[in-house]
Specification:
The complex is a heterodimer.
Chain A (H helix, E strand, L loop, with lengths): L2 H23 L6 E6 L14 H10 L4 E3 L5 E3 L2 E6 L5 E6 L13 H12 L8 H10 L1 E8 L2 E6 L6 H4 L8 H5 L3 H6 L7 E7 L3 E6 L8 E6 L3 H9 L5 E2 L7 H5 L4 E16 L3 H4 L10 H8 L4 H9 L4 E2 L20 H10 L11 E9 L5 H14 L2 E9 H11 L5 E6 L6 H5 L17 H4 L1 H7 L3 H18 L2 E14 L2 E2 L14 E2 L1
Parallel strand pairs in A: 1-10, 1-11, 14-15, 14-16
Antiparallel strand pairs in A: 2-3, 4-5, 5-7, 6-7, 8-9, 9-10, 11-17, 12-16, 12-17, 13-17, 18-19
Helix pairs in contact in A: 11-13, 18-19
Chain B lengths: L1 H28 L14 H11 L5 H13 L13 H36 L4 H15 L2 H15 L12 H5 L3 H42 L2 H8 L4 H31 L1 H6 L5 H10 L3 H29 L11
Helix pairs in contact in B: 1-13, 4-5, 4-8, 4-10, 4-12, 4-13, 5-8, 6-8, 8-10, 9-10, 10-13, 12-13
The chains are: A alpha+beta, B mainly alpha.
Amino acid sequence: MNRRNHVTRLAAVGLLGAVTVLSACTERADDTLIIGLSADITTFEPGMISSRDNANIARHIFGTLFSLSAEGDHLPDLAHTLDISDDGTAYVYTLNEGLTCHDGEPLTAEDVAYTFNRVADPANRFTGNSPGFVYTSIGFQSAEVVDDLRVQINLARKNPIAFGLLTEIYVHCKDSYESMSLDEAAANPIGSGPYRLASWTRGSEVVLEKVKDPGNFERIVWRIIPEASTRTAELVAGNVDIITNVVPEQIEAIDASGRAQVQVVSGTRRMYLGFNLSEASSQLPGGDAIQDPRVRRALQYAVDVPTICQQLLSVDCERATGPVNRPNDNPALTPYPYDPATAEALLDDAGWPRGSDGNRFSIRLQAGQGRYVNDVNVVLAISQYLTDVGLDVELELMEWASVYTPLLRERSMGPLFFLGSGGGLWSPIYDMTDLADVNSGTNYTHWDDDRWFSRWADLSAAETPEERRTIIDEMLQVFYDDGPWLHMYFQPDFYGVSDRIDWEARRDERVYVFTAGLR
Amino acid sequence: MGSYILRRLLQSVIVVIGVTLVSFLALQASGDPTYLFVSERASAEEIEATRQALGFDRPLHVQYLSFVRDLTRGDFGQSLSYRQPAMDIVLEALPATIELTLFSMIIALLFAIPLGILAAIHRGTAWDGSITTLSMLGQSIPNFWMGIMMILFFGLYLRWFPISGHVPFLAPLLDGDFGTAVTNLPRTLFHLILPGIAVGTYSLARNTRLIRSSLLEVLEQDYVRTARSKGLAEFRVLVHHALRNAWLPVVTIVGLEFGFLLGGVVVVETVFSYPGIGRLLFAAINQRDIPLVQAGVILLAGVFILLNLVVDLVYVRLDPRVKLAGGRG
């Protein structure tokens, strides 16, 4: 062997050794769970948290008074009892004894009242889910101390879903947060939940350390991995245990890897094609046609939803018959079948026959892109199905954040628009509150059918669950027949889970790993 | 030279203001950012209140002038999504991108110099043909595709290198935590190999071709022929006479490329989940986090201006014929 070969061989052995040693450095212990997320985390300020990924991590840091189980049951957490006043405007929670925040400060009713009032304080200018959605929805007024262990939340009016929405308020301690500026609080959460923040490398990872039960892992590492194929590669390589937002095209590769499996759950997000029924929309081409409920009903038959699901989402989706998730929906309703002949006949009957060019009417369909699973292809397919029954569809695919979101907030998309709206399992009324009022910010359709909107007063006045259920079913029947949505499907959610981990994905997009363990 | 530098720095202030104005107008033109900071159930009153809270209710020129006024006090504003000083967040992401950029440029130069020289001195041979072909290939392959392929082959199949992530070296070093920096260094380099190659391949290919063509041009010059005719060894002719002059265009390109890469590696940073400034700004643009975008743009513009200045000064050093305008050379 000459000298040059000897040196080359030594260098190769050295390189291989270095790689092996460094690879070993990256291996982790069994007490650590690693989760790959697709979106970055922006804040740990309880009043500013708004994205689901952000909330999923925060929920491990902050306790809540009560919580919702995967099945939608209302369970005690920091509090063990909830008493609601007869008029439904005062919620009195009784806390567990001996609670503390992560800095050791005792957690009492004063801290809970402080939490609620701090988030509502306009001086803090919080714009997260708690002040922006929860408080608005429940008509939050104030929180006050009853005694050391009892805190009272005051609402403006009776609200049948307030108990569920209040599970989204992250409890923190008064002294610790009063000693921090808002800047400091955003990056240094002092929580009341089972895990505390150990480190946060922006754009890279969040590391949590266990402080109390429940929790089977001493450390949870949330890694930010925006690219779907990289997340999949990390899972298959065994470097992460759970990944969110697996793209349908990669399901097969993960299942075949022998190291992980994809869990598919029917999510609670309602995917629908909306009909904008506003006056402004009715002036646009096709906007006048969809004002007629017969046209809307006809189009329910025009789109082959099962095929869209099988071909574009790789699963048989759970079909929707309205805004309410199963099992809280109206069981008497069945999804509209794909029947283009019926669709065409109904359109003819409604006074929109095909013209000499084969078209019945022109209409614009708007959609954002990159927000939902395979959304662009789904919208393209919908557009084609509508074209097949004689609509001249002008499809506009838009950048989600800058173009589509402002339209959403102004409720001016359409006349046809594609959207997904987050729902829940714990109350049918929660799913229906998108259309709690004609002018509600989430009634993107401007639908104003009195047979729906006048029943909300009846719902509030209902004395028994049975009475309430009857009203709900009647409302859902109206929504099914003449509603403003073309009912599509509940978005399937895809999670990649390592074979070493025992964990069940939830339907409501919450990634909670308190009970996850090693197999 | 001092007055030249001072004048250039003063000019750069105008450039920075221009850059901030353009980016500010571009972000504003893409829609009202308020909508991204309200819940979907927000009422018109809540939207208006949020707009006021974020300061977007003021006329555009007032918003911009207010930003410039704060800027003169060193206040870059608060990030709207992170609720933290915008420049702090940008500076937090900068070291990771500097590490990636430096690493990829070192790889690029380490291989480009010998390959370029080899191709030039063996012009027309199989060596030259192979190197030129590979260079063209390197310039043609999109870096994100190369990144994904390397992840699959070296990360997933061979399991030699980490698939994604970053271990900081510069950040602890700048914080004065030398122990952590030194401890991290091997893992930092380990994590940099795949993204570094993905980023550096284009530069490697381009620099190889640049060095080759530049050297070929110089090798045709009379003074090289003279040097050879004086009987100097070919190695000495190459190093002392040809290469010194062949460096000039390379220095220009490499210097500017560094600035370009600082903000331009967003795709590779995304593929490798690398927490750098490109990915940060990309997310900030999507989120219409105007203060964060402005802070990033100013920083990158500053780095670019500084690099331009350094390139000019190095150029003068390398080529005595070049004099700085208004200076004595």
